[in-house]
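batch_manifest entry 22 of 60
target: non-specific serine/threonine protein kinase
source organism: Zizania palustris
requested by: lab member K.T.
priority: normal
notes from requester: please return tokens only, no post-processing; we will run our own comparison against the previous entry in this batch. if the run fails, retry once and flag.
--- input ---
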Amino acid sequence: MAGASPLVQLFAALLAVAATATTTAALTDDVLALVVFKTGVADPLGRLAAWTEDDDRPCSWPGVGCDARTGRVTSLSLSAASLSSRLPRALLRLDALLSLSLPGNNLSGPVLPNLLAALPRLRSLDLSSNRLAAPIPAELFAQCRSIRTLSLAHNELSGYIPPAVASCSSLVFLNLSSNRLAGPIPDGLWSLPSLRSLDLSGNELSGSVPGGFPRSSSLRAVDLSRNLLAGEIPAEVGEAALLKSLDFGHNLFTGGLPESLRGLSGLRFLGVGGNALAGELPAWIGDMWALERLDLSGNRFSGVIPDSIAKCKNLVEADLGWNALTGELPWWVFGLALQRVSVAGNKLYGLVKVPVNAAPALRVLDLSSNTFSGGIPPQITTFAGLQYLNLSSNSFSGQLPSGIGGMRLLEVVDVSANHLNGSVPPEIGGAVALRVLRMGRNSLTGHIPSQIGNCSSLVAFDLSHNNITGSIPVTIGNLASLQVVDLSKNKLNGTLPMELSNLPSLHIFDVSHNFLSGDVPDSRFFDNIPETFLSDNSGLCSSRKNNSCNSVMPKPIVLNPNSSSNPLSQATPTAPSNMHHKKIILSVSTLIAIAGGATIIMGVIIISVLNRRARAATSRSAPDTAISDDYLSQSLENDTSSGKLVMFGKGSPEFSADGHALLNKDCELGRGGFGAVYKTMLRDGESVAIKKLTVSSLVKSKDDFERQVKLLSKARHHNVVTLRGFYWTSSLQLLIYDYLPGGNLHKHLHECTEENLLSWMERFDIIIGVARGLKYLHQRGVIHYNLKSTNVLLDGNGEPRLGDYGLANLLPMLDRYVLSSKIQSALGYMAPEFACKTVKITEKCDVYGFGVLLLEVLMGRRPVEYLEDDVVVLCDLVRSALEEGRLEDCMDPRLCGEFPMEEALPIIKLGLVCTSQVPSNRPDMVEVVNILELVRNPQDCPEIELV
Ligand SMILES: *[C@@H]1O[C@H](CO)[C@@H](O)[C@H](O)[C@H]1NC(C)=O
Ligand SMILES: *[C@@H]1O[C@H](CO)[C@@H](O)[C@H](O)[C@H]1NC(C)=O
Ligand SMILES: *[C@@H]1O[C@H](CO)[C@@H](O)[C@H](O)[C@H]1NC(C)=O
Ligand SMILES: *[C@@H]1O[C@H](CO)[C@@H](O)[C@H](O)[C@H]1NC(C)=O
Ligand SMILES: *[C@@H]1O[C@H](CO)[C@@H](O)[C@H](O)[C@H]1NC(C)=O
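--- output ---
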């Protein structure tokens, strides 16, 4: 009140001590109370500017209303006026007020305890949407006979709701929503004879809802949603027969829907979503025939959806999502006046049948996360008002109907994670309102239609995990609103259109795992695009990283700054005179070459390693033992931008004669969950296999990576492929292995011709060899994680060697999700515990994989075979054959019966024991090897009996 006049200050003082005012003074009191009110609040918008103490009547002041007869102030109404202060005490002097309404201001402090007592005629009080705090004073309701409408909603009130509120017998409307009120709902509220509307939503109320809804209740609307209320919904709530709206949503209610609800023939909204209600949906829901909105979502309701809901002819919104409902989609979804329907996240199945002549008013249809199958009914595209269509995570097959192009209001289409095939229909360009189009994780083929460029509102576009070919259409550059684009895991080729640099809002653009090449567009977004969005393509390069496609020249980095020779001169390859030079110069250059111009082969990675002297130094140092890498580490770590090559043990870390190792598609040996493998040659003519990790984004820090790789490199066993070295940069990691000419076991088993068919003895040898290799790895504490026939390589003598072991250890954590997605190609070999969070993954997962592999070798069949309408799981097949005594029938027919059954039988049984569901029931590899050796030399122990 800094600027207030002395007169006002005097009156303020008088008010504060509650000086008795005479009736004649009452009028002037009103003026002065309002002036004091004005002086006490900050009024940034000047809404009170016209209030001046010079007027003797305040009745024409903005927001002020008077009784025409007495001239007393009866209403004060200032909403959203940005008034800031504590709730002014001056209000207490306006004792003729009938209505006080100050919502949407910035009033703080507690509610005045004597507010209702001081304003005995007040019928309506609205202080909602302010910043009132502290508990509601219990005294507030000591004298509240005349109050009818009371809203303190949307403040910061805390504490319990004073039980005395139930004594305000005239209350019609009580709104305490969106505060921080806790504790129970006071008893007696339901008995207030005039109460029509109660809103306690959005607090922290707890306990159960008191019962006692009288038949005489006037209640029309009750909103208890978003609290912490528990227990059952009161059984007799339906006694309040005039109810039109009942919201119990988002609490902790249990039990079922009380049957008394069926009597609510005037109920228009029933909300119980987000609780823990269970049981079947009662058929009597249809008795609430006036329902317009029904929310049962997010509970545990089960059973089929009752057809009787169709009796609710006015139903506009029905949300039954995220329960455990079963059965088929009810016909009425397309039959009533429904505008919004969700049955997402249930267990519904079968075809989605749209009745002929259905012309529903649907705007939102969400059938996602069920197991609906069959085609997407083309009639859906005739629903002219449809704005949101979510069919994701079902088993829909066939094509996206082309009629979708005629849907002018359609904004969101999500059909991801189904079995759709065919291509993206070019008609999609007609869906001009489309903001979100998700078609990822299907089996789509064909090209991205250029017409997509007509969907000018598109914000999110996802076609990931399909088999889409061709190039990215230039027209995508027209879609100025695009923010999220995911085209990863397809077969797109060609270059990225430069027009993409026009997209101002882009923040995700994932094209990883395609066959794209060329320069990345120039724009702020693309200059800073994370590597993961571009990884695993034929060759994408960005000028920011100084490896623009136009300058593909290996530039060696000289890593020893003390070198006497010119550090920038590229050492000429294999100049023998350099071999005996005293100074050590090491140069490594790497380059990811991308096909920008015609001169460069697409998809080439060139590694140029020119470190003859390092080799010379190594050969002079202690024999055999490690490792030039200590030296290499030291000298390389000074230069963070360079790559680091480390070779273990003896051997030359130099690639083929021209100083380059070409890792291109022509010398690709195969691909797995962790990357592609290429064959290349060391300078001395020895072949090596180089694995290029595609999990670079997931790989641990350089130090962890090195530690793990060094651990793996120590594995030396004639049944294990030797890891010879590695190459590291933050974006490219290579592992260098011995190259094995014999190919992998999978090829020998499933893709071979008559001549090189594996004999019984060879198969037995392979099984023992694999078992020994695994035993060795386990003894060194290495879990393979990825055992399968493609990872068993055969050397020149037909001896098996395990490859790809322990790579999961290179990832930051043994995350099951990552593991199973990286190793999903090993379907059928994966131990069941991968799917079970509570079971620890141990080396017994390898034993499981070994058991499957063993059966695969003997039966010559894949671990899982997909037949036309059947899936054959090998170990189940063998297990039942054993039980039925017809094992011989399922041995590989190509063996033509040439095997001793007395040897085969125990081995098969061993395989079955190894594939036990429970890890602890599986033997360990030491036992497995012992058993196999005994089967081979039975004289050592005559009684082998596996049961
Ligand atoms: C609300 O009042 C507080 C002081 O009580 C002040 O700091 C704040 O800026 C005001 N907020 C608005 C939106 O006027
Ligand atoms: C209660 O008040 C809040 C905030 O002003 C408002 O949003 C809500 O609609 C009110 N409740 C009822 C039932 O009118
Ligand atoms: C479709 O529904 C799924 C849940 O079933 C949800 O995760 C996804 O976000 C929805 N898609 C869109 C575009 O809203
Ligand atoms: C892509 O095609 C290949 C072979 O044609 C098939 O094995 C693979 O499952 C397909 N991928 C998808 C996501 O449909
Ligand atoms: C993309 O691949 C197709 C065949 O797979 C080929 O015809 C076409 O020329 C390729 N396009 C580019 C730009 O490489």
